[in-house]
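in:
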């Protein structure tokens, strides 16, 4: 499925192919909350890196978050933002060089809806989730995890017959 996205000021527009366009996973980690979403959680989807086309690339700015502030260990992902309006657009990690991780909120193309019973909540441990964020308790609900889920983005789409 071809998806198109943009930043808020529309100085950066992008498109890519995604086989995993359903926004089903909410991440509550501090990096997603602060660097990506600004709210209680962020939602990434996945796209094929080689199909990424960017208009307004001169406005892109990258940021590599600290995974651990005490040890100063950097996160593997480089997050790309619009330098004008600050909208986070996508992340890229060399370890997974074939894919990008666009923010669902940056996508302008209508995404396939997800039933609330199929939503995954991840990084719900006390060191990640903000105490004010409303989320299920980890391991008390089928799709609530203290850290990482029991399924990848790709596997979830296959299991739910959403792999395009």
């Amino acid at each position: 499925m071809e998806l198109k996205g943009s930043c808020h000021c529309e100085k950066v527009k992008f498109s890519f192919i995604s086989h995993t366009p359903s926004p089903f996973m909410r991440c509550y980690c501090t990096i997603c909350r602060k660097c990506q979403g600004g709210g209680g959680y962020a939602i990434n989807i996945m796209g094929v890196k080689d199909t990424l086309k960017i208009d307004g690339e001169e406005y892109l700015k990258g940021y590599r978050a600290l995974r651990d502030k005490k040890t100063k260990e950097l996160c593997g992902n480089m997050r790309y933002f619009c330098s004008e309006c600050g909208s986070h657009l996508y992340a890229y990690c060399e370890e997974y060089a074939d894919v990008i991780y666009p923010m669902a909120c940056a996508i302008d193309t209508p995404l396939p809806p997800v039933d609330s019973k199929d939503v995954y909540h991840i990084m719900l441990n006390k060191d990640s989730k903000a105490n004010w964020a409303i989320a299920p308790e980890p391991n008390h609900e089928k799709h609530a995890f203290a850290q990482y889920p029991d399924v990848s983005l790709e596997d979830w789409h296959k299991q739910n017959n959403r792999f395009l």
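note: Residues 2-159 form a domain with the Metal Binding Protein, Guanine Nucleotide Exchange Factor; Chain A fold (CATH 2.170.150.70).
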